[in-house]
Amino acid sequence: MKIIIASDHAGYDLKEKIISHFKDNFEFENYGPFSADSVDYPDFAHPVAEDVSSGKHEYGILICGTGNGIGMTANKHAGIRAALCWKPEIAALARQHNNANILVLPARFITEEDAFDVVKTFFSTHFEGGRHQRRVEKIDIH
Known about the structure:
The relative contact order is 0.18. The protein has helices at 12-21, 42-53, 68-74, 88-98, 112-124, 131-137; strands spanning 2-7, 27-30, 59-64, 82-84, 102-106. Helix 1 (12-21) links the parallel strand 1 and strand 2 (27-30). The chain is globular, with a radius of gyration of 14 Å. 42% of the residues lie in helices and 17% in strands.
């Protein structure tokens, strides 16, 4: 599975650790940044969201300090269901019930071990469909 991943400066270290930890499980395309120098999160969230929204990539991971700014930015794009997750149970429900396609992590509020568990859960959980499909179809404004 190929996953696109990006962060801001606050999420840079966790992004790099995730890429390293899961290098044998996933193929990552790193959208940056490529250092911990201060950057603006929308500059990294928009390209990831655009490529998931367009279907170029199926899934993405975005990381910033709280996860809020980068997730809010991604969710402005049609077809994006970016889910802020800090526990595996939340990641599982985001996939099962919301068909989330971008995982958002709060780098300043999650341990490295928990982040790894969340990533593993998010990408091993499938959308349940059924009654949830109807709800997911009502998310985008047409």
